[in-house]
């Protein structure tokens, strides 16, 4: 399969760009199903449906029109796949490599010096799927009336909270922020950023009491608890319940996703704003069909039976790969690789803010953490659980990341039983008669960890870690628990230790550095220090050490800077502190993920990053997928 790297041509005022625009403007091509409607007078001509300056996408292979993309949805609320496959057309977009922000719905933008004002320029003539104009008024409605209304329970992008939007003319949008935020473009390009282009004012205002005095009553009569819930279900990104909602996406929804039907169907949007390098209006594919199933095994069976044209959703487990590999010829499909954005199969976090004085003092001793890292036989874990796929790795950005630091990634990963014992002896942990080491107050070092029962690999990992640590005199008490209990313990600082997947290994590191510094509720290694960043009003917060305070200062500078180069420089300083402090212990770099695609599918992505923030496969530009004839 061809390596996928869709390119975007942003038109400038240069003569070359003007010439290419002139050529394209005279030679637009449309799908046969739309051409027939144009001839019949049911639709305007393709040139009148496109914006004055459509976005030109350079497809790796110019495709042919027609065909249906078949995939599957797990259960009645698998909106994640809808958002990933057909719902990624934000104001600005990530590029394929997840290395920069590129034009999308907005054709250009400017940011003021202190990153408090963002001005976006929209495309003249851009239309919603119902043919009505898309203007700055739609985004002003989304930001001012929906996202910044506390009664709206749907996704409210953090970077836009407290923001105000203004549309001085239909094609100009100005967003003013209460505080500097040099990361806003990244937030707008991320999976939740699509929210700002989700609300057509003409349609969605019917659910808002500022625009419809009967909105609350109508919501109640429809079975909703509030107008906000009605808005979320009819217009928000997390429901896709109402197929009548106009969209800017490549395909418009035909069936309500309400759990009653067996297939959720989509068909091409006649007003989609992108063309390929030959002037063909995208998308190439006519339709999407997403079959609702109850179990992942059903998706696997559909896949090996050749009933799915492309997906990696729910199926890309190491244990499934041999099954798909053995059935490629019979099922008429190929396996393509994805690169996980996760940097670790599991990050072990001792609670440096533990309520127990003895364990808190022990955990805060960096040498203790180093000793237990050396005491883990990572090769044993990789062979036993991941079929030898992976490599010893700490909580650190992946090798593909611009933030990769080999020393940070590899420090203390060598399995060295004798070194671990020596370090534990040197810090004064004596051994009791039963071989378990003792705290200074005489209590044995029994460390309890509660593990979510539905996170199988973590339990398997920790059962092996338990054996490794017992050899050096540390007793790990692994308890299976409900996920809600695990989170409750963590959120209330009742845990001694926590394990979770190692996110933020690629382009998401800047957006969510949870393992590199204590900055969120997911920073289980120091939740009370983290409150100084995410919840400074909480009375439980504790003043962090000088090194962490320095990280907070650097992160503030990251958000205040409008320069990407400066942000990268500052973030590398944050990582230097992380390397020195060694907050958490990693196990292994995750093995490559995979997806399946039928042999007739063209422009299938290869080695695309797999992530939620970068909602794979969305940023590849799924509108260029096609079926070979």
Helical segment count: 22
Cα radius of gyration in angstroms:
26 Å
Domain unit count: 2
Distance from first to last alpha carbon: 17 Å
Structural class: alpha+beta
Low-confidence stretches: 1-6, 10-23
Largest sheet: 4 strands, mixed
Q: Strand order, main sheet: write it out.
A: 3-13-11-10
What is the CATH top level name of the largest domain? Alpha Beta
Any guess at the CATH architecture of the largest domain? Answer: 3-Layer(aba) Sandwich
DSSP strand tally:
26
Question: CATH superfamily of the largest domain, please?
Answer: Periplasmic binding protein-like II
Helix content: 25-40%
The global form is globular
CATH topology of the largest domain: D-Maltodextrin-Binding Protein, domain 2
Mean pLDDT over the residues: 92
Q: How much of the residues is beta strand, in percent?
A: 15-25%
Q: Can you describe this structure?
A:
By secondary structure, the chain is an alpha+beta fold. The chain has 2 domains: 7-199 and 236-339 and 594-627, 3-Layer(aba) Sandwich (D-Maltodextrin-Binding Protein, domain 2), CATH 3.40.190.10; 347-589, Roll (Dipeptide-binding Protein, domain 3). α8 crosses α9 and α21 (546-560) runs antiparallel to α22 (564-581). The two termini are 17 Å apart. The model is unreliable at 1-6 and 10-23 (pLDDT under 50).
């Amino acid at each position: 399969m061809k390596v996928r790297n869709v390119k975007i041509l942003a038109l400038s005022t240069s003569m070359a760009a003007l010439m290419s625009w002139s050529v394209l403007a005279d030679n637009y091509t449309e799908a046969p199903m739309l051409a027939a409607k144009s001839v019949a007078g049911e639709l305007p001509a393709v040139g009148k449906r496109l914006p004055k300056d459509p976005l030109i996408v350079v497809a790796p292979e110019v495709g042919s029109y027609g065909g249906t993309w078949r995939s599957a949805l797990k259960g009645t609320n698998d909106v994640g796949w809808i958002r990933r496959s057909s719902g990624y057309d934000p104001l600005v977009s990530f590029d394929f490599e997840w290395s920069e922000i590129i034009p999308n719905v907005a054709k250009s933008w400017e940011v003021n010096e202190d990153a408090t004002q963002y001005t976006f320029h929209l495309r003249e003539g851009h239309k919603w799927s119902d043919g009505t104009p898309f203007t700055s008024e739609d985004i002003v409605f989304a930001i001012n009336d929906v996202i910044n209304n506390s009664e709206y329970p749907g996704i409210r992008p953090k970077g836009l909270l407290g923001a105000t939007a203004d549309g001085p003319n239909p094609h100009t949008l100005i967003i003013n922020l209460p505080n500097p935020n040099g990361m806003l473009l990244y937030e707008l390009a991320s999976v939740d950023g699509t929210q700002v282009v989700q609300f057509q004012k003409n349609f969605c205002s019917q659910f808002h009491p500022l625009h419809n005095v009967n909105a609350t009553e109508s919501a109640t009569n429809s079975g909703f608890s509030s107008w906000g819930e009605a808005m979320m279900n009819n217009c928000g990104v997390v429901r896709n319940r109402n197929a009548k909602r106009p969209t800017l996406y490549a395909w418009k929804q035909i069936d309500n996703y309400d759990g009653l039907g067996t297939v959720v169907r989509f068909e091409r949007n006649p007003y989609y704003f992108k063309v390929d390098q030959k002037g063909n209006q995208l998308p190439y594919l006519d339709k999407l069909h997403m079959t609702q199933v109850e179990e992942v095994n059903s998706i696997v069976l559909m896949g090996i039976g050749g009933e799915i044209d492309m997906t990696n959703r729910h199926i890309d487990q190491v244990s499934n790969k041999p099954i798909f590999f053995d059935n490629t010829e019979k099922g008429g499909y190929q396996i393509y690789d994805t690169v996980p954005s996760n940097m670790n199969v599991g990050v072990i976090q001792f609670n440096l803010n533990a309520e127990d004085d003895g364990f808190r003092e022990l955990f805060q001793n960096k040498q203790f953490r180093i000793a237990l890292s050396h005491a883990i036989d990572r090769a044993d874990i990789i062979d036993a659980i991941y079929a030898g796929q992976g490599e010893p790795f700490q909580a650190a950005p992946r090798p593909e990341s611009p933030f990769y630091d080999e020393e940070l990634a590899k420090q203390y990963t060598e399995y060295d039983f004798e070194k671990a014992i020596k370090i534990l002896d040197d810090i004064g942990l004596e051994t009791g008669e039963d071989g378990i080491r003792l705290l200074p107050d005489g209590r044995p070092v029994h460390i309890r960890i509660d593990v979510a029962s539905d996170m199988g690999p973590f339990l398997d990992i920790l059962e092996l870690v338990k054996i490794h640590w017992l050899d050096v005199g540390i007793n790990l008490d692994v308890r299976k628990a409900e996920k809600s209990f695990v989170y409750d313990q963590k959120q209330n600082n009742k845990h001694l230790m926590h394990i979770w997947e190692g996110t933020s290994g690629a382009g998401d590191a800047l957006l969510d550095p949870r393992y590199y510094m204590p900055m969120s509720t997911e920073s289980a290694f120091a939740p009370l220090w983290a409150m100084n960043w995410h919840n400074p009003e909480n009375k439980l917060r504790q003043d962090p050490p000088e090194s962490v305070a320095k990280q907070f200062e650097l992160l503030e500078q990251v958000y205040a800077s409008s320069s990407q180069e400066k942000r990268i420089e500052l973030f590398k300083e944050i990582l230097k502190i992380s390397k020195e402090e060694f907050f958490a212990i990693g196990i292994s770099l995750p093995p490559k993920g995979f997806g399946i695609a039928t042999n007739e599918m063209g422009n299938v992505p290869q080695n695309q990053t797999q992530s939620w923030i970068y909602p794979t496969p969305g940023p590849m530009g799924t509108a260029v997928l096609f079926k070979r004839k």
